[in-house]
Input
Amino acid sequence: MLYALARPLLFALDPETAHKVTLGLADVFPFRQAVPACPVRVMGIDFPNPVGLAAGLDKDAEHVDALAAMGFGFLELGGVTPRPQPGNPRPRLFRIPQREAIINRFGLNSAGVEKFVENLKKARTRSVVGVNIGKNKDTPNERAAQDYARCLEAVYPHVHYVTLNISSPNTQGLRDLQSEQYLQGLLRFVHEKRESLRQQHGRNVALAVKIAPDMDDASLQAIADAARREGMDAIVATNTTVSREGVAGLPHATEAGGLSGRPLFSRSTDVVRKIAKLLKNELPVIGVGGILSGEDARAKFEAGASLVQVYSGLVYRGPRLVPECVSAYRAKRIAG
Output
C-alpha cells in the first residue's frame, strides 16, 4: 500500500534519480515484512526462501541491510568490475510503463571491486549474498578471464556465490564471451582460481554463469556443455534482451540498451525451460526476467528454475512482490 502511494511521485522523477531516492529512503526507513519460511538448498547453499534480488539494483553494495529487510531469500549484488568505471553517459535508464518494462544501458558502472568489498563489510545482514562480476570495458576479451579472477579473489571471503556476467548487452563485445572462442577458456580459468581460493580459505563459493535470452539452441547447448564440463554450479537465465518485441512504437522503445520487465517474461522463461532440459538436472537454473506476480514466479519454477530473481517487478509492484512469489512457490511445492 505504501509503495502504491509513493509510486506516482517516484515515477515523476528521472528513473535513475528515482532509483537512488528509493534506496536512500529504504536505508533510513527499512521496509520490513513477513515472508513465509520456505527453505531450499541449491548449489550447496541453504536459502531461507527461493526468491532473490537480481543483480543491478545495488551495484556497489551500498544498501544491503535495507534490501535484506524486504525478506529476500538471497541478494545478488553488483555487477562489479575490477577497476572503477563510470558506465555510459546519462540518461541510461528508461521506463515503458504501458508494458511494465525498463530499458537500461548502464554499461557496468561500478565503484570497483575494492570499494564494493569495503561497503559489503559494513553490512550487518546474515542473508545469503551473491555478487555479479564482469570485466572492465577497456579490457580486451583475450584478457577477460584475469578480470573475472581478480573480482572473484576480492569477494571470495565475503559471499556465498559469484555470478559471471558474460551477457550484458551494454558493454561492447561482452556477449562474445558466450561464444566457443572464449567460453571454455574463461570458465576453466575462473574454476581453477576458485579451487585455489577454496584451499586458501577453507570454504566453497559457488560459481554461476549468467546468459542472454537472445541465443539460438546451438549456443544454449554449448553453454550447457561448457558449464558442466568446467565445474560451474548454476546457470542464471536470463539477462536483458536486445529485442523490442512487445514495446515497439512506444516512447523510449528505440533507446539502445537491454529490455527487461513484462516483455521479457516469455523469452526468458523459454530459455529457462530449454537450458534446464539441456542440463539434465546436473546443474540448477536461477530464473530471472519479467516476474511481476506470484504466477510469473510459479511459471519460472515450473519451467525448471530452482531459484528466481526479481528486479523490474520491484519497480512496478514494490516489495510485496517478494512474499507473493514465495507463497506461489510454497503452493506449487504443496501441490507437488
